[in-house]
């Protein structure tokens, strides 16, 4: 994800795609992790990664909790035990600035009902 222009890169390490998402939503759920002494990277939390997946998947509009369940468990094959520990309060706080609010809200409701 990026707040700059979307870009795709192909090199010897693989294919890389940076998809533009709006600010301030971009900055939510990002943590700074230490890779080694003096070297750091930015990484999305699991909650942010899931929300980004919903937002950036073309053609996905989740209009119900039933659709959200199918997306989470059949399409993404998510583990319900992992989803149960997601911080849905934090996810709800990001909704105001996120695209696909209805889709995200249905995903959050499914997680809260696990």
In what range is the share of β-strand residues? 15-25%
By helix and strand content, what is the structural category? alpha+beta
**Low-pLDDT segments, ≥5 res:** none
The mean pLDDT is: 95
Biggest β-sheet: count, sense, barrel? 2 strands, antiparallel
Q: Helical stretch count? A: 5
Please tally the β strands and state the result.
Answer: 4
Largest sheet strand order:
1-2
Q: What is the H/E string?
A: EEEEHHHHH
Instruction: Tell me the distance between the termini.
Output: 28 Å
Shape: globular
Please compute the radius of gyration using only Cα atoms: 15 Å
Helix content: 40-55%
Instruction: Give the number of domains.
Output: 1
Chart the SSEs and their pairings.
Layout: E1 7-11, E2 14-18, E3 30-36, E4 39-44, H1 46-56, H2 65-75, H3 80-84, H4 88-94, H5 101-112
Antiparallel strand pairs: 1-2, 3-4
Helix pairs in contact: 2-5
Please describe what this structure looks like:
With 114 residues, the protein is of the alpha+beta class. The chain has one domain. The chain contains 5 helices and 4 strands, in the order E-E-E-E-H-H-H-H-H. The strands form 2 sheets. Strands 1-2 form a two-stranded antiparallel ribbon. Strand 3 and strand 4 (39-44) form a beta hairpin. Helix 2 packs across helix 5 (101-112). It is globular, with a radius of gyration of 15 Å. The two termini are 28 Å apart.
């Amino acid at each position: 994800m990026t707040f700059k222009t979307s870009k795709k890169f192909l090199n010897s390490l693989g294919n890389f795609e940076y998809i533009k998402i709006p600010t301030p939503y971009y900055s939510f759920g990002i943590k700074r992790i230490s890779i080694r002494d003096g070297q750091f990277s930015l990484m999305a939390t699991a909650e942010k990664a899931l929300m980004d997946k919903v937002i950036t998947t073309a053609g996905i509009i989740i209009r119900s909790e039933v659709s959200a369940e199918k997306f989470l468990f059949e399409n993404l094959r998510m583990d319900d035990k992992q989803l149960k520990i997601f911080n849905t309060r934090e996810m709800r706080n990001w909704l105001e600035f996120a695209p696909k609010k209805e889709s995200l809200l249905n995903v959050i409701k499914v997680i809260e009902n696990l």
